[in-house]
């Protein structure tokens, strides 16, 4: 028992055991596979970023399409209203012309 405790104390003093020892091993690149783990983490982070970018692009595209549809609807509505107004004006002119013609005919009858 005593020998094991002494070995642990020596390891702690040298910084081999415990949390500190693990840090030192990582800094040195020891422990086998540290570099691979880092590369995998980098790759995974990169893939996540790419996925997020794709997702953002899709959302932006949807928003643009929605906005385009809104603009088209507004434009169509405006043109329809313009047509209605133009038609109303045309009807007014026709009515005025008919009334004028009707009055002219009545005046001609009165003159005869």
TrEMBL record:
Compositionally skewed regions (Acidic residues) per UniProt: 1-13
Domain of life from the UniProt record: Eukaryota
Comp. bias (Basic and acidic residues): 55-70, 98-112
Bias kind Basic residues: ranges: 34-45, 71-81
Location of the region described as Disordered in the Swiss-Prot/TrEMBL record: 1-112
Protein name per Swiss-Prot or TrEMBL: Uncharacterized protein
